[in-house]
Amino acid sequence: MLAAINKVIDRVENVAMIIFMFVATVVAIIQVIARYGFNSSLYWSEELIIYALISMSFLAGSMGVRYAAHIAVEVLPVLAGPKVAKVLHVVATILGILFALMLIWYGGALSFKTLKIGQLSPAMRFPVGYVYAIIPISGVLMLLRHWWILVCIVFNRPYESLSMGITSGT
Known about the structure:
Blueprint: H1 2-37, H2 45-66, H3 75-80, H4 82-117, H5 128-132, H6 134-154
Helix pairs in contact: 1-2, 1-6, 2-6, 4-6
């Protein structure tokens, strides 16, 4: 069940990242062409690009959990032995769950409050609460990822993070 959810999340994150990256790139190219080719500027382009980059950053947090790409002190589990390493992994995963819950709670509150007061973005006049919604959404995705890792640890199931295809070259 969790593996199937994980695959769906992988797909959603990958598609969302592609869309955000595509939008930011195309709008930036159009802005450059408009500015230097037609001596006219798109007043909303910078804001849209910034929102796309912010959204990509928050989604990358969940992807970082999946790819085990977040910063970690890797020497402690190696020096401590397998039993202590497992405890450290559980503690780190629980801390990740707490962080994800904070993103959901405070990000959701921020999103709902800004929607309630009707705050609009300066250039596009778009409700900022929808932009802030990426915070609790990424928190939910992180929570599901960390929960899956915790289940795998507790029930001694194999968990392998996805490879990013990056090698050190040595």
